[in-house]
Structures are given as C-alpha cells and as structure tokens.
C-alpha cells in the first residue's frame, strides 16, 4: 500500500503526519521524502544516509559532423529546447525536459545524450528500522519531476508492505508526480481560508487521477468551520483531527516527531492507518 | 529589407506589441516597397521556449530584422546566429506598426546589444 501525504498549502503538517504515520506502521515500511526542493523528514527520522546516487535528465549532444540541419529535432521538441537556424543547431538545456524525442527522431543518429545532474538520491535505515530515501534537488534547478521519478524507482533495501511518500507543497507537477501510482492520498490541511483554498486544488488532482483521498485537519480549533463544511458537501471523509497545542509545536521545533512528543497519539495514528487500509481495500 | 514588427492585431496599422516571444502576431513588411503581410505568432501559446520558437518562426519568414520591445536570452541567442538584427521600439507610448516602421526608416531605433531581461524559465512548473 502506497500512501501519499499531501496538503496544497505549505506548513500544514505534512511531514509531522507522514513521520508519525511511518513510526506506527510496523516494520516493513519505506519512507520517501518527495519534497526534493526542501526535504526535511530526515530531521525527524534520523536515517543513516549510506547510499547515494546522482540523478537528472538526459540532454541532447549533437555530432556536428553527422548533422544535416534537417530540423526534425527542433520540430519534434515540445519545449523548443532545440532550434535549427540555417546551418546552426542550438540547444537550450534549461528548456529541455529530457524526453529523448530528438534522439529518437534524428535520421542521421547525430544526437547522443549526456546526464545533466539535477540532484541526488540518498537512502538508508533509520534507528527504528525504517527504509528511508529522499531526493535533494540542486539549488537553482527548475524541475523536480525527473528527480521524483527516479526516487520512486529507488530500490527498496527490503520488501515493504507500506510506502509513505511525504509530498511537496503546492498543486503543481511535482505533487502530481508524487501521487501517481499511489493507493491513497492523505490530505493534511488546517481550518483556515488558506488551507481550504489549497485543499480544493489538491482534491481536484486526486479526482483527476482517480485516487481515493481523505482529510486530516491539523491545528484543529483555529480558523473557521469552512474545511469541515466543504468536506461534508464534497463527500471527502475527515479521518483525523489534531488540535492546536503548544507542546506539539515545541516538540517539532526541537526535531521530535509528534508520536514521540505525545505517545498517546500512537494509537490514534494506528487507527488512522486502519481507516486508510479499509478504504484502499474497499 | 524585410522587417518583422511584433504587433497585436493583423494589419500594418495594428498596435505595436512590445513583447517578442509572446507577441500576438508579427507584421512582415518590406521597408522599401511597403508591402506587408501579417502572421499569427505560433509561440503565443507555447508552454515554454516562446522566444526560441518565435525567433525560428520569423527566421523562416525570411525577416532580416525585427522590431520589438524586449528580447529574452533565448530569443537573443537564436536571432543572433540567424543574422536577424534586433531593434527596440519605445514601449511606453501606443504606436502602430506603421509608426514603428516610420521610426525604423528614419533611423530612430536602436539595436539591442544583448538580451534585455533574464529568462522567464526557472519558476516551478
């Protein structure tokens, strides 16, 4: 079972929930930190990151001796990363998405590819025995999706029964890529107009992808009642509520997980996992 | 000389469009005879690389010079090897393509020595 913890709005508690969920999910758990622009789950789970691999996209390289400047590569490129002007061929690496179409279409086999490193994948075991991996995107890189695709294919250290993916914030391509192939999307939100606005956007994505979703209301008690009413109307189940408490904020600020700071939540997170399992099985 | 002017319309008296890659259209005009044709910009709806696509488009139209209000780095790097001279027209006032042509003929326009702004690409998408 693959569970994605997403939110739309940043700072609602995705990592807080994802890490605690992982800690109560038993032995055969693997945890993927998919927020490659700012991965932070390692701060709470403390894995020993022993394996490392560079990742990126394949950029075209042209052999000028073979190129006839027919322009098919420029025409096939959806992103206009190649231009053929007279007898000159120009490549714009920052526009390339690494799809490989130009390499395939070139009738002269003049295009080869080189790896453009965009970041790294790192993996290892946590002290509690979780199989952990994260992607870290290099500063200044514009595209997270190629790193996410590779992270999802990261070979598990051992067979797992539950995979938990901590999604990036927002509702753009990296979030969609994190959700692809998942069995359930747990949406962490806060009961504020901002939380609701972005929640609606990610619910739209889960519907587009045809994935079952449920909501966890964090910082319950602040804001207003609009998230509750919206979920009731939209038929989205609210699976758990975590109240706004200073001791949670203090624990998380000092690098502790929620279930470490409040052990009574172990049971509540286990119940959450059971509810998710039941919904996936249904 | 065949001159491409970025416009928002389909005529020589259409308003000048100060954007290059995202211009609505280009008016291709022969600065000697005054003959002109209008061409919709295929890069207008491009998800990215609009400057590259628009530059290739006007190169294919046979333009030897272009007048717009701004050129990004990719547009600049594509237009330069294409041998297309890049002229800048004032962006503050509402000019028609015909008025831009008159300024060009009167030698009142300066050439862009480099890209006028940084690329638009780089934001998360």
SSE succession of chain A: EHEHEHEEHEEHEHEHEHEHHH
Strand content of chain A: 25-35%
Q: Considering the protein shown, what is the CATH homologous superfamily of chain B?
A: Dinitrogenase iron-molybdenum cofactor biosynthesis domain
Largest sheet descriptor of chain B? 6 strands, mixed
Distance between the terminal alpha carbons of chain A, to the nearest Å? 13 Å
Class from secondary-structure proportions of chain B: alpha/beta
The helix/strand class of chain A is alpha/beta
Strand order of the largest sheet of chain A: 3-6-7-2-8-1-9-10-11
Walk me through what this model shows:
The complex is a heterodimer of chains A (282) and B (125). Chain A has 282 residues and is an alpha/beta fold. Chain A is built from 11 helices and 11 strands. In chain A, helix 8 links the parallel strand 10 and strand 11. In chain A, helix 1 packs across helix 11 and helix 5 runs parallel beside helix 6 (173-179). The model of chain A has no long low-confidence stretch (mean pLDDT 96). Helices cover 22% and strands 22% of the residues of chain B. Chain B has helices spanning 50-60, 73-79, 97-105, and strands spanning 2-7, 25-30, 36-40, 65-68, 85-88, 110-111. Chain B has a 6-stranded mixed beta sheet with strand order 3-2-1-4-5-6, with helices on one face. Chain B is globular. The N and C termini of chain B lie far apart (40 Å). The chains are: A alpha/beta (282), B alpha/beta (125). At the A-B interface, strand 4 of A face helix 1 and helix 2 of B.
